[in-house]
Structures are given as structure tokens and as C-alpha cells.
Amino acid sequence: MAEIVITESAAAAAQLGADAVQALVAEKPDAVLGLATGSTPLPLYRALQRRVAAGLDLSRVRAFALDEYVGLERGHPQSYASVLLREAVEPLGLDGGAVRVPDGSLEGIETAGARYEAAIEAAGGIDLQVLGIGTDGHIGFNEPGSSFASLTRVKTLTEQTRHDNARFFDSAGEVPMHCVTQGLGTILRARHLLLLAFGESKAAALANAVEGALSASVPASAIQLHPRVTVLVDEAAASGLARADYYRYAWANKPRWQGL
Ligand code: PGA
Fold it and tell me: How far apart are CA 216 and CA 52, in angstroms?
């Protein structure tokens, strides 16, 4: 069962997420983070940035991105390598050499997944994986139909995802058709999952993921199989949850020694 924490705002959720990262790094300064892109993790990265400015040292942290587009030229501003550099590596003072993104270049794409899996394994696995959720229930770019056992591989984006992500590009047609994404099986191997969801548009996907049946049709429902999941949501994203009152009650009465 996931722990679901309903907060008054994305900013409040981000503070809790930053607490989890800070606690991990205090214990393990070279912790391995799994980093998500998109709009959802930005409040978390901003909260961490403020802590870095106040003295938190993330320079030894290692990180793996969740996914990357296939076929964008190196340095394309919307490649996830560029996005992560801008939104996480530079503002958080991470060591860019210790932050890896799946290789989305066409040359060698057949082995990109296996190479990425090997790199994660060599790093000792991911300690804390940050996740957003797509309106179609995807995590990473594992679109509906993805196997719960899948590892990093090339996937075809749904029309819905390409439409959702068109806002980052000049036109919808420019959104790549393919991606390399950590699989659901890869994500489930991380030691702690931190799933963030904000806004009404995520309410249905979130409710299906945490309260619906386990199904490849809702890839995010795979998190129900993980022993340590923290779901941080605002009121709007929580609006479809049937057991919201219980989650609030459990959070309000949580033994503080447990942490997140
Ligand atoms: P978003 O995307 O954070 O930009 O809403 C989430 C996702 O597609 O996983």
C-alpha cells in the first residue's frame, strides 16, 4: 500500500519530497536518485534548490533520468538531457558527470535499454525514484499495455502523450514518436518511490493507479506492488480518491519516527 499524503498545495508536497531527499542524502551522501522530467517535479526541484542555497550539499549525489526521447539532436532544448541539466543538475549543484540519461540517439538505439540497465546496476540501484503520472496513467514513458516486468527499452508514445507534451515544442508534429524509458520492472526495483501528482487533470489517473485494479492498462498501478511508495498530491489531484478521508486520518496520526 502506498502512503498517500494529500497536501494543500504542490509547494507543500514539494517540501515533504525535499525532506525525503534530504534525509536520504544525510544518510548516504552519494545516494542514487531517479529523476523525472515534465512539470510535476519542478516544485520539488525548486524546494531542493532553496535548501542547497541554505547549505544542503548534493554534489556527491548520482542520478538516473527516467526516460529520453529518441532521435532529437544532441543539445536539443527539449531533450530530457537538456531539461534535466537546466532544471536539476545546474540549480541543485549536482555533478553532471554522475547524472545519466538514456541514450536516445539513433545510432546504437537497439542497445540503449540494456546499456542503461547495466549502468543502474553498476551504481548499486536507485535509492529514491521521483515519478510523475501521465493523464493516461503512464509512469516514465510506460504507456498503457506496458508489462509490469519491463526493463528499459524503446517505446512508442501514445497520441495522448504527444499531445500532452506538445506544449514544450513549437508544434505537436515535432514531439518525437519514440522514447527510451525505464521499464515498470526497472522502476519497481528502486528502493523508494516518490510519486507526485498535481491538478485536476491527474485526478482520474491517480485514482485508478492507487485504488483501481492492478492492470497493464494503468501502468502506474504497478506501484501497488512496491513495498515503499510515497504519493504526494494536492487537493485537486486527490479529488477522485474514494478513501481520501482515511489517507488524511492516517497521515495526521502517523507515528513521527516513521518519517516518509
Ligand atoms: P507532467 O507529465 O509532469 O508534465 O504533467 C507527467 C508525465 O507525463 O509523467
Answer: 38
Catalytic amino acids? 67, 136, 138, 143
For residue range 115-156, list pLDDT tens digits in order.
999 999 999 999 999 999 999 999 999 999 999 999 999 999
Q: Specify the CATH number for the domain of residue 24.
A: 3.40.50.1360
Provide the residue range defining the domain that includes 240: 3-254
Based on the structure, what is the number of domains in the chain?
Answer: 1
For ligand 1, say whether the CB of 43 is within 6 Å of any of its atoms: no
Q: Pocket of ligand 1, candidates 68, 133, 175: which has the most ligand atoms within 8 Å of its Cβ, to mutate?
A: 133
The closest-lying atom of ligand 1 relative to the alpha carbon of residue 36 is 9
DSSP 243: T
Please write down the long-range contacts of 118-122, taking CB distance under 8 Å and 24 or more positions apart: 119/64, 120/32, 120/64, 120/152, 120/186, 120/189
- What predicted TM-score, i.e. pTM, was given to this entire model? 0.96
Would the CB of 201 count as within 6 Å of ligand 1?
no
